[in-house]
From TrEMBL:
One of its GO terms (molecular function) is metal ion binding. CDD domains: fer2, PA_degradation_oxidoreductase_like. Transmembrane segments: none annotated. Residues 283-374 form the 2Fe-2S ferredoxin-type domain. This is 1,2-phenylacetyl-CoA epoxidase, subunit E. Residues 11-115 form the FAD-binding FR-type domain. PROSITE patterns: 2FE2S_FER_1 (PS00197), 2FE2S_FER_2 (PS51085), FAD_FR (PS51384). It holds the Pfam family FAD_binding_6. It comes from the Bacteria. It comes from Chryseobacterium salivictor.
Amino acid sequence: MENLLPKARPIEFHPLKLAKKQELTKSTFALEFEIPSALSSQYHFEAGQYVTLQFPVNGKVVEKDFSMTSAPYEEKITLGIKISSEESFANSLFKDLKTGDFIEVSEPRGRFTLSSKPHEFRTIVGFAGGIGITPILSHFKNILHTEPRTRLFLFYGNKNKKQVAFKNELEELANQHPDRLEIHYFYSQEKVGNGLFEGRLNEKKVALIINQILQLDDTDEESTIWDAVDEVLICGKGEMIKSVANACYRHGIRKKNIHFELFEEFNEDIYPVEKEFPLLENIEVGFKLFNKEYKTTLKDNKMRLLQQLLIQKFPVPYSCKSGICGSCECVLEEGQVELLENEYLTEKEEASGKILACMSIVLSKNIKVNFDLM
């Protein structure tokens, strides 16, 4: 999770003490922050959410988002972070942040969450790629703690065995809950003697997983484990999410039960757009952003609203461009748009006039939107 520009709504930060820093692999590490009792209500969170860290890099204060691996019952904030390069924000954190230091940490937010159902028998499947394990680990710990009737299956992809982050913690969870948690590891650049577990997690791999792993269900001899899946959680790079999500949908899981979190900018739709829209030209757009009023003209409506505003160099907040992160959330005050499928807005929010600019096709000659959400 990494916002390129902040959302127009303010983010609340507080200084938190770093209690622990741990190297996990050569390119990943974990940070654990203490939550003082005076701030316990501000740092109440749901499994799957994230926080933003503020940290000085080369004389400038930089903000980056990181998903939590901790579960709410643990009453702490633990993050898993990947170092992509020597010049990265993550590497600066790893080199310069010491145990006992204080750092500005935002209050938790994010919608990669699930409703808790402790009295139901549920089957939940997770697909994680690399550091995408972080929010899924939070979910799985929380579910194992709060839902005694839920069983979990995790399919976790990495380049090789040495790059598996949180392997010890995952194995400990599996040993503690052998009847409720099953983990399978996949390697894209290492041979392990079984073709099923070699290669990337993608649409073809999901089909093999369904046919070879999620087969006979001990709780129901007339169906398979896949037939019983209630929710799917996916986190990783955009191509992986797109491929796995579509595979799950084509194998019978409803889109509303497929949840995903993106860790980088992704400019494609997760699901194919199946509708056609009437062509409009010379569209007048007015919008409010960071307390400033703007007006512009769009040549036509062949592209979504966000993409067109970015082409015109307006500083509109965004991250994923795929309807997942909510960074481009705004209110439609005048005009009409078609809001394509998205993972972020609720039906109630859509009914109140909220839209995501990245998933909006303009359907009127004049529109007005407000990005300044308070």
